[in-house]
Write a structure and sequence with these properties.
The chain has four helices and no strands. It has about 80 residues and is an all-alpha fold.
Length: about 80
């Protein structure tokens, strides 16, 4: 049943790649919600901690990558407003 977790993790994680790439390239964050990214990153951080606590590899991998992608967007949002 872990394969479903890996599929879900891959799809939800990769969904942030286009936004992260676009934000890195253009440095344009005007249309992005700071509140959404602050809240989302906090939630992903909690999911990562939960995954580590459970030792659940799909949760750990997915949330680590998601935090990297959305954290990058958040940092650029804070830097470029």
């Amino acid at each position: 049943m872990n394969y479903i977790g890996f599929i879900a993790a891959f799809l939800t994680t990769i969904s942030f790649a286009p936004q992260a790439i676009k934000t890195i390239r253009t440095k344009s964050t005007e249309s992005l919600s700071l509140g959404m990214y602050l809240t989302f990153n906090t939630g992903v951080g909690c999911w990562l901690a939960y995954g580590i606590h459970l030792g659940d590899l799909p949760i750990i991998i997915a949330n680590s990558i998601t935090l990297l992608l959305t954290g990058t967007i958040l940092i650029l949002k804070l830097k470029h407003g």
